[in-house]
Amino acid sequence: QVQLVESGGGLVQAGANTTLSCVASGSIRSITVWGWYRQAPGKQRELVAYIGGSTSYKDSVKGRFTASRDDAKHTAYLEMTRLNPEDTAVYYCAAHEGSAWYGSFDYEGQGTQVTVSS
User: Fold this and answer.
1) Sheet holding 75-80, edge to edge
2) Is residue 2 within 8 Å of 97, Cβ to Cβ?
3) 73, CA 20 to 30 Å: which among 8, 35, 51, 113?
4) How many angstroms separate the CA atoms of 16 and 83, rounded?
5) How far apart (Å, rounded) are the C-alpha atoms in residues 50 and 77?
6) Concatenated DSSP letters for the chain?
7) What is the band of 100 on the pLDDT scale with cuts at 50, 70, 90?
8) What is the torsion angle, in degrees rounded to the nearest 10, for the CA atoms of residue 59, residue 45, residue 78 and residue 10?
């Protein structure tokens, strides 16, 4: 089993930047794809970004968010810049092991709250 723990959330001002981290531990074989979801109050969860062989972003965060990974540290990052109140949500990281990826993840963290004040 693999555990994911996010960190780096909190209260930030609109226009500010912050970076989330997600560390994997446990019986890790090979994480091939990392994903970042978010869920705002009263809204459905949405996939914000994922990074595997390539990186993809939700349109509303393109150019502002950057997903990266450090495989040696079993860690993924989500750098978020020019935050706005619409980015307020609980952010979850997710991970997939194995060579074939069909859009779902095997593991998910508990989430970290990001609140952007105007």
Assistant:
1) 2-7, 18-26, 75-80, 65-70
2) yes
3) 113
4) 6
5) 10
6) -EEEEEE--EEEETT--EEEEEEEEES---EEEEEEEEE-TTS--EEEEEESSSEEE-GGGTTTEEEEEEGGGTEEEEEE-S--GGG-EEEEEEEEESS---S--SEE---EEEEEE-
7) confident
8) 120
